[in-house]
Fold:
Amino acid sequence: VQLQASGGGLVQAGESLRLSCSGSTLTLEGFGIGWFRQAPGKEREWVSYRGSRDGTRDYADSVMGRFTISEDVAENTVYLQMNSLKPEDTAVYYCAAANPWTIVRGREEHEYEYWGQGTLVTVSS
Structure:
């Protein structure tokens, strides 16, 4: 397993969670890292992107201002801080890694080569 996503759980609306994406054989600093999510019965959608070494941070409109992507280089981990959670944020969240030369905007699944196994976030109303 090259990527490991963790930190999901059950929370109430308005609460926060922090997801982690850890690299085992990958040094995440050198990769573009994306977070995606898939809600029950829906297609997987892009949530956030962290550019490789260029400081780029990008967010889907639905999470802008509530979610923040960050990283701890020493821990080889990228985080997704999720605040003010809503029931519609309920989904399995995936992290993915892309070689820098495959990234266009970091918003499409096909740009990513490596995927974590997903972690479930459930937000109750």
